[in-house]
Amino acid sequence: MTAPFGGAGRTAPGLPNLPTPPTGWPVGSYATYAEAQRAVDHLADSDFPVRDVTIVGVDLMLVERVIGRLTWGRVLASGGASGAWFGLFFGLLLVVFGTTTLPPFVAVLIGLLGGMVFGIVLAAVGYGASRGRRDFTSASQMVAGRYDVLCQPRNAEKAREMLAKLAMSGDGPRPAHGS
Known about the structure:
Elements lengths: L24 E6 L2 H13 L7 E17 L2 H25 L7 H27 L5 E16 L1 H17 L10
Antiparallel strand pairs: 1-3, 2-3
Helix pairs in contact: 2-3
Protein name: General stress protein 17M-like domain-containing protein
Keywords: Membrane, Transmembrane, Transmembrane helix
């Protein structure tokens, strides 16, 4: 299985290296990526030549979901935590490669504390520089209004028939409205 925007499929022979518009005839249109993926999976399970199939996200939009309010306490705690992981890693490297004469526990502890201080300082400087212009945390993702399944003309009618039977069986994804 590959990710929708990368993975093994990107380096497959025969695929263009530069961005190119998709080709093929529409054989299905779905409201979610999971439904389009399920439709293509059905084709694959039925020994359909899925190399002729493309899933295309249409009406792309960037969705930013606000997770929470950002405060000095959260910024410093987050900076300290991420710095602690980096410091722990650095301290363990010192111990493993024997570049210190300190006892192993002390070397790891110094790395951990140093990393925390460094992380807190970097986080404070970054947050202070924003001057309150972005006092929230969020997660962004690219989504589409609908997902069209295209197929090369040589097999498009067969794909359309298979997907129509799947939708009528009640087991498959429902086509998107308005397409």
